[in-house]
């Protein structure tokens, strides 16, 4: 039996690791298009901006793959899946046969349809190569412009401010990180960024990016006519799932590669996990989450299925996520987007806990600098049945006490 994994990021590495731990003895091959050994992405917008130490990013040392007989093919892009003959084709014109194929091909940055959005001096952040370029530019910059007030743009702006480069962050919607967090958390981070010297413009969509012949961005023009200038311009306008390979192979894709509760596509020999996968949840909807947690938990679930044949129970895990912005550690358990009522409970200093309810049942807990509440929330949200607002109020909102 040969399992081939396309992509060599968080989901892929967890999968090959778990497959060996779960006793899979067949051939394992992982094909990734980046030139490096698999590395962690979250530090790229956080600690790496400061220390630049790529060796600390590796997900596993080279020796791990060798000793576990996992073949890692780097710098090689898979261009085609031949489902009839069960092989993949690479940009080196090689073909690799498979019995089971796992697509762990992640997501890619969105380039909005704006004049100038393809300017080569416009920076983006997804890969180690991008982060290295940004670090070089940061070292000589005084002022940055960040297009997009989501997690990655804000993490960058916080790290840049620590290095005395302040940013103007332009966000098209009326609040920061709007798709993923509650209004109270958006407001908290708006205050935080302003307090460290960043300028945040809300309801401020970009109309045009104007470049010069010398390979520089001259200005970023907003829809209201305002023109921004800065030596470093980061485009952080969101990501989309990588689906081209799957679409070309005729697999069903809808905001991600569509998979069932066993992470199987409409071809029973092909699976998808991580940022690229739209997974059928126990609520009967397809959901795609861009987080290390989702990539890791889906990989572990698929490994049990492939190595041990443990099917039956559909994939389910409490989503959780974190974002470090300066000294503000945001942690999210559950999905705030599922809530229709929020209750913000400020704690000591900069601590904040926001409880999200759907019809009086707890569905999310966002915390800032309150790791204990976050861990308790993860335990509570994983319990069968849901916790009511009345119960939480009766216990004085003490999540840690309720979780004991
Ligand atoms: P990836 O890790 O993106 O791996 C996919 C790999 O597949 C890539 O190397 C890609 O180049 C490769 N690939 C794609 N197509 C092909 C092909 N055709 N052939 C070969 N290889 C291919 N998540 C959090 O939970 N917390 C955070 O704080 C956080 N911070 C982040 C900061 C940054 C800067 C970024 C970019 C992401 C962050 N994330 C964070 C998101 C997290 O990194 C992703 O959710 C996670 O990496 C998803 O893992 P994956 O394996 O699905 O995809």
TrEMBL record:
Residues of the Reductase C-terminal domain: 320-402
Pfam families found in the cross-reference section: Pyr_redox_2, Reductase_C
Keyword Oxidoreductase in record: yes
Annotated FAD/NAD(P)-binding domain residues: 1-299
The entry's keywords: FAD, Flavoprotein, Oxidoreductase
GO molecular function: oxidoreductase activity, acting on NAD(P)H
Leader sequence residues: none
GO CC aspect terms: cytoplasm
Oxidoreductase listed as a keyword: yes
Requisite cofactors: FAD
PANTHER family reported for this sequence: APOPTOSIS-INDUCING FACTOR 1, RIESKE DOMAIN-CONTAINING PROTEIN-RELATED
Protein name: FAD-dependent pyridine nucleotide-disulphide oxidoreductase
């Amino acid at each position: 039996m040969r399992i081939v994994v396309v992509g060599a990021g968080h989901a892929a590495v967890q999968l090959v690791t778990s497959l060996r731990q779960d006793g899979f003895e067949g051939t394992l091959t992982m094909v990734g298009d980046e030139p490096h050994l698999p590395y962690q992405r979250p530090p790229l917008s956080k600690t790496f901006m400061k220390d630049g130490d790529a060796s600390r990013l590796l997900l596993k040392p080279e020796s791990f793959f060798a000793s576990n007989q996992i073949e890692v093919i780097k710098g090689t892009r898979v261009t085609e899946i031949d489902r009839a003959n069960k092989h993949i084709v690479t940009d080196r014109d090689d073909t690799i046969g498979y019995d089971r194929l796992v697509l762990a091909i992640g997501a890619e940055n969105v380039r909005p349809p704006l004049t100038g959005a393809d300017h080569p001096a416009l920076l983006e952040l997804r890969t180690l190569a991008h982060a290295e370029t940004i670090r070089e530019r940061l070292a000589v910059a005084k002022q940055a412009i960040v297009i997009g007030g989501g997690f990655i743009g804000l993490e960058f702006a916080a790290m840049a401010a620590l290095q005395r480069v302040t940013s103007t962050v332009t966000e098209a919607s009326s609040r920061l990180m709007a798709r993923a967090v509650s209004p109270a958390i958006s407001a908290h981070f708006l205050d935080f960024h302003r307090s460290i010297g960043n300028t945040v413009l809300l309801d401020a969509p970009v109309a045009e990016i104007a470049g010069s012949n010398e390979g520089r961005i001259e200005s970023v023009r907003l829809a209201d006519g305002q023109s921004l200038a800065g030596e470093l311009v980061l485009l952080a306008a969101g990501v989309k799932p990588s689906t081209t390979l799957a679409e070309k192979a005729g697999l069903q894709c809808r905001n991600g590669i569509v998979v069932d509760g066993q992470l199987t596509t409409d071809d029973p020999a092909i699976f998808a996990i991580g940022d690229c996968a739209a997974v059928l949840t126990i609520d009967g909807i397809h959901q795609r989450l861009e987080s290390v947690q989702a990539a890791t938990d889906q990989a572990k679930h698929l490994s049990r299925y492939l190595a041990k044949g443990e099917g039956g129970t559909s994939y389910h895990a409490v989503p959780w996520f974190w974002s470090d912005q300066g000294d503000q550690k945001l942690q999210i358990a559950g999905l705030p987007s599922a809530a229709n009522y929020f209750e913000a409970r400020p704690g000591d200093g900069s601590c904040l806990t926001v409880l999200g309810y759907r019809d009086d049942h707890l569905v999310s807990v966002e915390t800032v600098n309150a790791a204990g509440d976050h861990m308790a929330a993860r335990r509570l949200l994983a319990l069968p049945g849901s916790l009511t607002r009345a119960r939480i109020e009766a216990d004085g909102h003490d999540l840690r006490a309720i979780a004991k």
